[in-house]
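My current task is to audit a protein record that another person submitted. I need someone to confirm that the token line plausibly describes how this chain folds. Take the sequence as given and treat only the tokens as open to question. This is what I was given:
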Amino acid sequence: MQTTEALPVTEPYVLADYDARGVVRLTLNRPRQFNALSEEMLAALQAELDAIAANPQARVVVIAGQGKAFCAGHDLKQMRANPSQAYYEDLFARCSHMMMTIQRMPQPVIARVHGIATAAGCQLVAMCDLAVASEDATFAVSGISVGLFCSTPAVALSRNIGRKAAFEMLVTGDFIDARTAQTLGLVNRVAPPAGLDAEVQRLVDAIIARPAEAIALGKSLFYRQIEMGIEDAYRLAGETMACNMMEPCAQEGVDAFIEKRAPVWATRK
């Protein structure tokens, strides 16, 4: 968690870059505040995610941080300036909505992590579908160090790593390094600082090479079935696979396999 220092209001909170392949890079742009999730940052990130989710040309999203850190969690100075339970409930509800938008949108979302990812910043990493971290990245749910149990980050963290490891992080506030985060399942890949973007790009390229329709179906199924009992999960999975088989991308892929050729995926309209 990090306190705030005012910056010019003309600076955008989130920088958005779209490329011709449908890769969208969102960069949290408050480096002097370690990209803390202030009200303004949450609103800006929510607006960008909503726009991307509705854009059929967008294929994959990369969330990064400007400056020395990925994200240091909520803005404590802003929170202390509004000492009202109603304010806090609204703030955390809006943050939770933003986090769930990442899970519900059809495009895979990759966290590009460097520096620190603490409290709600660690939650943001956990809520992204995939994460690539620099070897110098560190992670913590450190609210307990200021008397605040990271309850909302606990939801995401406990769905990424084992219960005991998650609870230890939550009750100690201790940092873990990138390799430990990878071992625990919080991040997928770890790269040297100079190779971080190249490692992110390899993951992006692998996703772009697959059909968007199948990925969108699969992402929705993946998160829905996790919260179900096994029989209901299999039922939903079977229905999803049947729907997937009716998609042109699956028909082309199966035909290509039978005919021993490379599939030609149709461009999304």
Strands lie at 14-18, 23-28, 60-65, 109-113, 116-118, 130-134, 138-140, 176-177, 189-191.
